[in-house]
């Protein structure tokens, strides 16, 4: 009978540790170099469902030339929200060839859904205003390894 309370305590402790770890920003994902014309982007790559779910949550700051590229297995209408995200971001929904389909500005801590205008495989999140400051709009082309011909 003494094992049940210990097992329960271990389970509670394990859950608490997992919750604390989940509140840490992802800082060590693989990176890829992208470009938008003359503008360089150093993007972390979120490939797995867990990496995509966490995304840029819990980040307090991000250098202007950095972002996160979300890579999905197949094109689909992608929708994002900002729960637990502290930074105001702009999401670029990107076609397989690197063409920006649409851009949406997203507010921190919002659960509003922001979706691609058509099915896409890629979403690039940058600090809000980055695309506008560079004069980049829907139709702009991104370049880099993910967008090279398959």
The level of helicity is 10-25%
Q: Tell the overall outline.
A: globular
Ends distance = 60 Å
Q: What's the CATH superfamily, by name?
A: Protein of unknown function DUF192
**What is the CATH first-level class name?**
Mainly Beta
- Total strands: 9
Round the mean pLDDT to the nearest integer and report it.
88
Number of H/I helices: 3
Uncertain segments are: 1-20
Largest beta sheet, briefly? 7 strands, mixed
What is the architecture at the second tier of CATH? Sandwich
When the domains are counted, the total is 1
Radius of gyration: 18 Å
Q: What strand order characterises the main sheet?
A: 6-5-8-3-2-1-9
Strand content: 25-35%
The chain-level structural class is alpha+beta
CATH fold field value: Jelly Rolls
The quaternary organization reads as: single chain
Order of helices and strands: HEEHEEEEEEHE
Explain how this protein is built.
The protein is α+β, with helices and mostly antiparallel strands. The protein has one domain (27-147): Sandwich (Jelly Rolls), CATH 2.60.120. 20% of the residues lie in helices and 35% in strands. The chain has three helices and nine strands; from the N terminus they run αββαββββββαβ. The protein has a seven-stranded mixed β-sheet. A hairpin with a 5-residue loop joins strand 5 and strand 6 (100-106). The longest helix is centred in the N-terminal third of the chain and has 20 residues, at 3-22. It is globular. Residues 1-20 have low confidence and may be disordered.
């Amino acid at each position: 009978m003494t094992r049940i309370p210990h097992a329960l305590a271990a389970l509670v402790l394990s859950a608490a540790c997992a919750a604390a770890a989940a509140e840490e920003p992802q800082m060590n994902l693989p990176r890829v170099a992208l470009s938008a014309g003359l503008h360089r982007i150093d993007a972390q790559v979120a490939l797995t469902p867990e990496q995509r779910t966490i995304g840029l949550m819990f980040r307090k700051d991000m250098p202007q030339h950095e972002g996160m590229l979300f890579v999905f297995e197949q094109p689909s209408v992608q929708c994002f929200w900002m729960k637990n995200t502290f930074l105001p971001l702009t999401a670029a929904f990107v076609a397989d060839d690197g063409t920006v389909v649409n851009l949406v500005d997203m507010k921190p801590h919002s659960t509003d859904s922001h979706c691609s205008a058509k099915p896409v495989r890629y979403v690039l999140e940058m600090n809000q205003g980055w695309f506008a400051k560079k004069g980049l709009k829907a139709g702009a082309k991104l370049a880099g390894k993910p967008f090279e011909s398959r």
